[in-house]
Every structure is written in C-alpha cells, then in structure tokens.
Amino acid sequence: MFARQRFGMHPGLGRVEALLSRLGNPQRAFRTVLVGGTNGKGSTAASVAAMLRAGGVRAGLFTSPHLTRFTERFVVDGAELPEAEVAAALAELRPHAEEVGASFFEVITALGALLFSRAGVEVAVMEVGLGGRLDATNTLDPVLSVLTNVGLDHTEVLGNTREAIAREKAGILRAGRPAVTGVAADLRPILRAEGADLWALGEEAHLSVQGRGWEGSDVTVGNPAGTVRLRTPLLGAHGAANAGLAALAALRLGLRPEAVQAGAQAVQWPGRLEVIPWRGTRVLLDGAHNPDGAQAVAAALRELGVERLPLVFGAAGDKDLAGVAAALRSLASEVILTRAALSPRAADPASLAHLFPEVPLTVTDHPQAALDALAARRAPQALVCGSLYLLGEVRPLLLGETSEGRERWQ
C-alpha cells in the first residue's frame, strides 16, 4: 500500500465509492463530521473528537499524514487501533482496492470507514485530505462540516487563487445541514452559496482569547446557543482559534458545555507547536509547510516572548518555500538545514540556503546530523519546522523511539 503513494493523488469520487460499495458501505454505520481547510484541520479534528469522548460518545478520529506510525491515522476513543487489526482489515480490503484501481488515500479512507464500523464508532471525525469537493473523504455523508480557513497551498491541484481554493473546499458542505467555519469574511459568500446552515466566526459566533503563555489559552465562544468558556493546551492564537471552532462544532452536535470544556482541556496534538525537552533544550516541533502556517507559528512564538532561536528547517521541494522562509527568517538566530531522509519529495538542503540570507547556516544531509549540530549549540530553545515528514523523523529521535522506516510521499 505504501508503494501506491508513488502514483500520486487522483481527485474524483468514483473509485472510492466503488471500493466502499464492495465493502458493504461501512461508512453508513456511523455519523460523520468532515473537517477541511488549509491549516489547522488536524488540531481542530482532534479537539472535536476529544469533546465527543468527554460527552460519552464513542468517537473515531481519522487524520493524515501520520508522523511516526501508520496507525496514528485510525484512533478510537483516544487510542490508536492495534497494528494487527489494521493490517488484517487492509489485507481484506486489498483485492477490492486493486480491482477498482484505488489510490493510496482512497484506500486509507475506505480502511478508516471499515475499521470504525467494526469498532462500533458512533461519530467519526474525518480530516479531509486535499481540497474537499473531490477528496475521498467527501464520499462520506457528513452530519456536520467544519472549514478552518483557506490559504494558498496545493495550488497545482486546487487553483492558484484563494477564491478557487475556497470553492473546492466548500464542496464538503451540505445544503441545509449545520456547518461551522473560521474562513475569512471575503470568502464566506462562496461557502454560503452551498446552502449549508453555516455559523461563521466573526458573524454568527465570536471568540475571545486570553493567552496563558506556555500553558495555552482561555477561550470564550459566543454563539446563538449561548456562551461557553474553555481552556486549551494548544499554543498560539491559531491554536486557540482551532479549539474555539471545535467547540462551536461540538455544540452544534448537541454536546453539553461541560463535555466541550473537558475535551478541550484533554486534547493532545503532536507536531503542532509541540514542546519536547531534549538535552537541556526546549525543542518546539511544528509542521508548518505553507506561508500562512509559518506566519502563525512566528506570531505564536513572539506572543510567547521568543525573540530569536535556532531553526532546524527542511521541506518538500514543491511548496512555496520562499514564503515559508520569509515568515521564519526574523526568528532565526541561525538555521540548520536538513531533509527528511525517507521522503523523496524533500528538497536538497543545500538548495534552500538562498532562502536565509545573512543568517548563519549549517547544511546537513540527515535529521540525526541536524540534531547533532543543534546539540552542540546548547541553546535554551529551538524550532524544528517546514515539513510533517521531517517531524516524523525528528520526533522519534528526540524521544528515543523507533520510526517505521517506510518511504513517505503522502
């Protein structure tokens, strides 16, 4: 299945619909929440799932990509499904996937539906992969849709304007059904044209955020159903906004404020401004790989009082790397360039040097070499950023864990 990553993404719903049909349409066994957007999908989806669990709902969480283990993509009631269970379901699914010519992401979407149906999931929170309208997850029929935001990413597939991307992402909305969004005001008419019962932050709902430094934020969510106050460990203004949007979604699903509060406080989402103490250094991991994400990270660090720190940076070659680097440059006291060893999409570290003019540079060819260089600096804190695939290799090195060692494309 991992070999199928090489064949890329093929937008369209026909193959995954045929695959699900062959499996007996397992997606009909549970209700679905779709979570789309350019950035923040994962943390928002994880927050919604945590709130459902706190409300006594058996919740499934489907996310992508994974950091270290493939089974991270399939979580039920807060726990990854066992690898043996996932492998057995995949073996059962395989001949059907081959028959219909399903892509990697289509296979794992159907696999998630099959696993969740067998696990007795009541509500599955599904993170959309790419776009929305033609994404494999859009074959599921959501009772609620969430759109976090819209920015310029995957422009080669979704279009090169925010408006074009918004139209693609709005495809997960359903006429007459509830939806929530944090999308900017100028793009909301595109979303409203889908006819969903949409609550937007800044219109039907409002957020008030009080930062608590490295402990997260207190968030007040005002909405047509009342007001709820919660505390989230997610760092930065963008983390608080994602938690607030998740709370709005949870309230629309009928959860009580107490469940929303408990779930918000319990959420964990690795690799997004995650703090890992390592050899006397507070290492921050963030998968920001587009300009909007990098700007959010930079703003969050300034809010936390971080002026300058070493940056370990590596990224896929098909991203807007100039935009990402521009957002991070002012934070970097120096830059250690590297690449995800298991990702053929990763850019040659030496080719990134021009993105950081007048900043001290070290070029390494492997994440371990980058960490060795970082350890020699004995810095009080550092940021590892630019690619989730890079984080997927750095994180186990920091924690003393093993990685699965498979080539990563998606």
Can you walk me through this structure?
Residues 271-384 form the Mur ligase C-terminal domain. Its cofactor is Mg(2+). It catalyses: (6S)-5,6,7,8-tetrahydrofolyl-(gamma-L-Glu)(n) + L-glutamate + ATP = (6S)-5,6,7,8-tetrahydrofolyl-(gamma-L-Glu)(n+1) + ADP + phosphate + H(+). One of its GO terms (cellular component) is cytoplasm. InterPro entries: Folylpolyglutamate_synth (IPR001645), Mur-like_cat_sf (IPR036565), Mur_ligase_C (IPR004101), Mur_ligase_C_dom_sf (IPR036615), Mur_ligase_cen (IPR013221). This protein has 410 residues and is an alpha/beta fold. It has two domains: 2-266, 3-Layer(aba) Sandwich (UDP-N-acetylmuramoyl-L-alanine:D-glutamate ligase), CATH 3.40.1190; 272-399, Alpha-Beta Complex (Protein-Tyrosine Phosphatase, Chain A). 35% of the residues lie in helices and 21% in strands. The chain is built from 13 helices and 17 strands. It has helices at 14-22, 41-54, 83-100, 104-118, 155-158, 162-169, 188-192, 236-252, 257-266, 291-303, 321-328, 367-377, 388-399; strands at 31-36, 59-62, 74-76, 79-80, 123-127, 142-147, 178-181, 197-200, 206-211, 217-223, 226-232, 272-278, 281-286, 309-313, 332-337, 361-363, 381-385. The protein has an eight-stranded mixed beta sheet, sandwiched between helices. It has a six-stranded mixed beta sheet with strand order 12-13-17-14-15-16, with helices on one face. Helix 3 crosses helix 4 (104-118). It is globular and about 55 Å long. The protein starts with 13 loop residues before the first helix and ends in an 11-residue tail after the last helix. The model has no long low-confidence stretch (mean pLDDT 93).
